[in-house]
Sequence to fold (245 residues):
Amino acid sequence: MKAILLAAGRGSRLGSHTLHEPKCRTMLLGKRLIDRQLEAFREASIRDIAIVRGYMAGRIQVAGATYFENRAWERTNMLASLCCASDWLEREPCIVSYTDIVYTSDVIELMLGADEDDDIVIPYNTNWLPLWEARFPNPLSDAETFRLGSDSRVFEIGGRPTTLQEVEGQFMGLLRISPKGWRMIQQFLSIQDQSLVERMDLTALLAGLIEQGVAIKAIPYNGLWLEVDHESDLLLYENEYGDRL
Fold:
């Protein structure tokens, strides 16, 4: 199993924190976000790691890592960065991670233990609501729909919910993709308008795959998971999560 970290974006909503550093190198309680992710993968015994770079690419230097470059990072989204790592995705299963999130090796181990016959696997956080209530005056203003079928497959993802009943959890920015799963993704992308693909994030990708009948296996997880989008997130986590990070 290999890991691919998507680290091309600037993260302009973090303001001065990303003037001279890519978002993934933002400091949280004395440690950079990307270093926390690398630590989680290494604790789960995953040593082969690729990083998709873009904004201030030279600032991301990790010993032993393989680099892919998203040179169009200013006008593209997360899916375009993922496609930059197609060479790895075609060859063997990979765990893909956003780099503006915080988690532990527990969730990586959970993904490693998923059925090998499931070609696209995502963990979802079942304890998302207290975090969203702390981050937003109205948690539904930023949450996305997430509903499951009876077979632990994702039925709906990425919409705008109007009730909490539409949100059974939140996509965590982590997924495991097999080579077969990547072929299904490529087939889906081949029939999409290129300009749409450039703007598409991974949640929109998953929603599109589901519409085409592709099975997305979902695994519940209630451990540590934080998302960093705003300076207020950093302040919140420093105040509330210091003893857990």
Residues 33-43 form the longest helix (11 residues).
